[in-house]
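User: Um, any thoughts?
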Amino acid sequence: MTAELRAQDLRPPFVWLWEFLREELAPFPGRGGIVARMVIASTLMMIITMVFRLPYGAYSAFYVFQLSRESQRKSIQSAQTIVAAFGASAGVALIGAMLVLGDPGLRLLWVIATLFVMFFALSTMTSYAASLRFGYLLAIVIPVFDHRISAEAKVEQTLWVVFVMMLATAIALWVELLLVDR
């Protein structure tokens, strides 16, 4: 064993965690503004969710943190990617549900195929952000089709998920563009 390995073995446990947290939480110029914009966007989304009693509010309040905040251009590109990925995943969910809604065996195959497509997209697409958003919405929507409610209610719930996620994206982008330092 080398001296470095022996020194690492003698360190107290979780020192690596402390070092990681110290490095990640180190202040840098603009961090306060980024945190303020994230808090404002999340708070606005929760106020809208509570006032209008929107379903899936917990997902939407969390989702405002997903927008890229590197620059205005990156924020706009991130929002466009999110909307496109949500549209694609809503299409996959609704078309797949139309094809298999009445048959539990086909439904199981659809869920397996959908999960395969999600994970395949994560591993092969050049835009990790787009594939992640695609899978995120599908992961929320798949359980909706297991509820014992009418087909119309299932489609309505799917559309609510898409609407609330796109609203969260729009609010995060609006706050980012309105309050970003110029």
